[in-house]
Design brief:
There is one protein chain. The protein is of the alpha/beta class. Helix content is about 30%, strand content about 20%. The chain contains 23 helices and 25 strands. It has a 6-stranded mixed β-barrel. It has a 5-stranded parallel β-sheet with strand order 2-1-12-13-14, covered by helices on one side.
């Protein structure tokens, strides 16, 4: 109800511990769950350790393109690794919608990389339906129908294979599945070569994608003839996983040109290995709880290799199947704002009896919580920061306090340790540190001094394994169809190689347009909201007063009787909103675009009430193989207000 009461820190920790003790005494430790921004770093690992010792399998993280790459690297290379991209040493960069200079990965790194590309005359090609800042700065912008990127990648593969432009030494000697193959049950399957040649000719792909056949062929030739070409998947800032098929198709392009774990290529980066804590002590209650499936279905028999499926949580809770979830902790994440179908997310949070937020801000999720245990802000605390997404070498950064805490906040790491001690027993013994800073220093060991002095540590001489050492598959080679490990039925197995796109939800006859989001460096769309001085810099073609503008191609606007700056009603299967129209030649006909990062209902008067939250207009579209959210667009209608 928005009526908050201040309580002491001992009272708060006692209250949380009492509830957790009650669930454990009732032999239901799986009644507790936790949502994190990331599961890497000492604070997330403290949460993971707490839940493991307690007996809950319900640890979830916010989604990103790394989720898809993690599964693809496991399927096609057999490794548990993060994807790293040696963008600085590539001679041609082909981006399938990745907003490389719109906030993707580390923005400073990408700005520097862009300068390097310009200086070295590296060709950058951006494939997406809208002329983003990245597309505008690229050498080529190729407009594509939303959701058809996998078909383009396979159409390019067709040309590369047909014209023998692929890296024969690597493909013939270092891969399996390129030619036809037979599975252990004796069932024959077409190879990648046959798939591309028979099903993805340029003429067919042109009809699917809206890109001319000649342009598809030219793009394929440019890519294959470059000395170090690199293809990247993951749209926008990379905060949505996307479909596994699309990611596999793009990764297969890199394999065709032999640029796996090579300079200027895509690298399999080992998981951070500096957190070497003793094995967690689990008692009988914890052991039973950990045998349960996670509330989101990750790791279950349906999605055995997926680590987190936060996109499935709202549906599970709202359908009544998640009634067992009684308590949810949220750290460094704002799912009530940043997840698709945010109305359903808020409904799910309202149904969970006890929600604890560790936010430093009164964000949408904190507003929907029952208890707030505010963390120090990043300027007030120590914390390790593992490698940003896409970095091609091991890296650890260190956040260091530059000012003392201004308010009555506590480091979340300290709170987790204190909570473990309040729970006692095997849970308390599993987190033996007195303070978070003690935990951090003992974990980082010899790296602590370097981090204190320099602010970061990185492995300068790191090189990914090459040859057979790069692949831990059964064949010890790159597997074009390694994804068969995800197939649950023969139907799945037969469908998997075709990488069928996930169509935008909605009825095309009633909703003829496709609504897509776009990201901007001036608008934050994740855990932390946009600060006031950045809101002031947002163009009036994005936000005018408190009204959000939707980009529409002039051709589309003419057919709908819409004109610049005039109000219109935007409709999707998730709801309606009144918007203003911005005519923009840089968006494909039949597609409309809305910015992400506006429409907050929380924070303060500088941010709240401005525009509309794109996530209120779109729903989750689970990938049938991984369960990850593959949605990037949704069917929409637009008419005069």
């Amino acid at each position: 109800e928005g009526r908050w009461q201040a309580i002491s820190w001992p009272q708060a920790i006692t209250q949380v511990a009492a509830k957790m003790k009650a669930y454990r005494s009732g032999h239901h430790p799986d009644a507790v769950g936790c949502i994190l921004e990331s599961d890497r770093g000492t604070v997330p690992r403290l949460f993971e350790r707490l839940l493991t010792a307690y007996g809950s399998p319900n640890l979830m993280r916010t989604p990103s393109f790394l989720d898809s790459y993690e599964l693809v690297l496991h399927a096609m290379q057999g490794v548990q690794a993060m994807a790293g991209f040696d963008l600085e040493n590539a001679t041609l960069v082909l981006s399938f919608g990745s907003g490389l200079i719109d906030g993707w990965s580390s923005p400073v790194r990408m700005f520097r990389a862009n300068s390097t590309w310009r200086r070295n005359r590296v060709k950058v090609i951006q494939v997406e339906p809208r002329l983003s800042n990245t597309a505008a700065k690229a050498d080529q912008w190729i407009a594509i129908r939303p959701g058809t990127e996998a078909a383009l990648a396979l159409g390019m593969a067709h040309v590369i294979i047909k014209e023998s432009l692929y890296h024969k030494a690597f493909v013939d000697g270092g891969t399996v599945g390129f030619s036809g193959w037979t599975d252990p049950q004796g069932r024959p399957h077409m190879g990648f070569k046959q798939l591309a040649l028979e099903h993805y000719g340029p003429d067919k792909v042109a009809r699917i994608t809206g890109i001319g056949a000649d342009r598809i062929a030219a793009l394929a030739r440019d890519f294959a003839r470059a000395s170090r070409p690199l293809a990247v998947s993951g749209r926008g800032r990379g905060t949505m996983p996307g479909g596994i098929g699309e990611c596999m198709a793009v990764h297969a392009l890199n394999a065709l040109v032999g640029n796996i774990n090579q300079p200027g290529g895509v690298w399999a980066l080992p998981e951070p290995d500096y957190i070497n804590w003793p094995e967690v002590e689990t008692d009988a209650v914890a052991a039973r709880g950990l045998q349960q499936d996670s509330i989101d279905g990750a790791g279950s028999r349906h999605y055995p290799f997926t680590r987190s499926l936060l996109n499935r949580l709202p549906e599970v809770v709202n359908s009544g199947k998640g009634k067992g979830l009684q308590m949810l902790m949220v750290h460094a994440a704002n799912p009530c704002y940043s997840l698709p179908d945010s109305k359903a997310v808020r409904q799910a949070f309202a149904a969970i009896p006890f929600v604890v937020s560790f936010s430093s801000y009164m964000d949408e999720t904190a507003k929907n919580a029952d208890l707030i245990l505010p963390n120090h802000t990043y300027l007030e605390r120590y914390e390790d920061v593992p490698a940003p997404a896409g970095l091609p070498r091991p890296f650890i950064g260190l956040a260091r306090p530059v000012v003392p805490p201004l308010f009555n906040t506590r480091h979340t790491g300290d709170v987790v340790i204190q909570l473990a001690k309040a729970l006692g027993g095997s849970v308390g013994r599993s987190l033996p540190w007195g303070t978070y800073e003690e935990c951090l220093q003992s974990t980082l060991k010899d790296k602590w001094r370097i981090l204190e002095e320099e602010g970061f540590w990185h492995q300068t001489e790191f090189a990914p394994p090459s040859g057979a050492a790069a692949f831990e598959t059964v064949s010890q080679k790159f597997e074009f169809f390694g994804g068969v490990i995800y197939a649950k039925t023969q139907k799945d197995l037969d469908a998997l190689p075709h990488f069928r796109p996930i169509e935008p939800a909605g009825d095309p006859s009633a909703l003829p347009l496709v609504l897509i989001p776009y990201d901007s460096m001036r608008l934050a769309s994740g855990y932390i909201g946009t600060p006031p001085f950045m809101i002031k810099t947002v163009e009036d073609t994005v936000l005018k007063g408190e009204h959000i503008l939707v980009e529409v191609n002039p051709e589309t606007a003419a057919t709908l009787g819409l004109s610049e700056g005039k109000p219109a009603v935007l409709t999707t299967p998730k709801g309606q909103v009144t918007v203003k129209v911005h005519l923009f030649d840089g968006i494909m006909p039949g597609v409309v675009a809305m910015p992400r990062g506006l429409g907050h209902s929380a924070y303060d008067a500088y941010l709240a009430g401005k525009g509309f939250n794109f996530n209120d207009m779109i729903g989750s579209a689970p990938d049938p193989i991984s369960g990850l959210d593959a949605a990037w667009g949704i069917r929409a209608g637009l008419q005069k207000a």
